[in-house]
Amino acid sequence: MWGTVGCMNALLLSRDPGLADDLFRLAAAASVELAVPSSAAQARALWTESPLVLLGADLPFASYPRRSGLVLVARAESVELYRHAMAAGAEHLAVLPEGEPWLIDRLAATTRPGPAGKVVTVTGARGGAGASVLAATLALVAAREGLRALLVDFDPLGGGIDLLFGLEAGPGPRWPELSGLRGRLPPDALTTLPAERGVSVLSHSHAAPVRIPAQVLDAVLLTARATHDLTIIDLPRGQVAGCDHSILLVPTDLRSVLTASTLASTLRSPLLVTRGPAPARLPPSAVAEATSLPLAAHYDFDRRTPAAAEQAGLPTKGALPSLCTALLPLLQ
């Protein structure tokens, strides 16, 4: 569908009149206007200028270069469509009508002043790799550097990442209070989270684990981008739609490397962090070669860390905090 160019809150590209009508309705609900190019040449010119692009699934994704702020919109989901979304570098696949609340919030976000915060996931190649400690230390270092840091626990069976900060008995919402969310998240919902040492923490509870619906996570992360400079997700497995980077933590042992090789293809913009010591003297460069990932950093396990974690006293000095300090510029 081609028309005239309106304001530049968002660019709409679709030849499906019904889909376009729905997107105009959602844009009106978000109090924004959609720009609709009058020609293919104008579409290419506006592609890089618009803060947000809504690309209908009826158009070929390969016709456009990769960019941030790209949302694919469809009426039905499929494995192939998700693959196309990943290949196009889309931040999200919005399936209507289920994805309408998220899309309204995303459109409204284009009118908010200031840059959006970044979202980073941290995944370990195996259990016990130290991903939770790495995620928590990264959040601590970010807060020390003056960033508004949010640590999100996405492991329902992990016992609650708030334990690393001594916040397990503290007031504030956890995932169970947000799991039934419908529609947009109130702007101040993340301001009452438990916090310690400059880090806000959204943790699972220590009682029965809850499943977090995808639309709830989307709503939380959309608000997190507006309220925090860096959101770090402790993610045991899988992928979070719309994250900016994925850190894959791989101990330098054969089992971890083999698992990491499989995980690497499922992550968005992955960065490799290796952890020693290496039982078989496997160098970090060999892990990078085996996983086909860029080696961002390496550190050796500190035997003092488990005791420090038990006492909610993760250090901000030493090998791991230094590594996190070096990682921060790569994540912003």
Automatic annotation (TrEMBL):
InterPro entries linked to this entry: P-loop_NTPase, ParA/MinD_ATPase, Rv3660c, Rv3660c_N
Domain of life, source organism: Bacteria
Record-annotated Rv3660c-like CheY-like N-terminal domain positions: 15-116
Protein name, UniProt field: Septum formation initiator
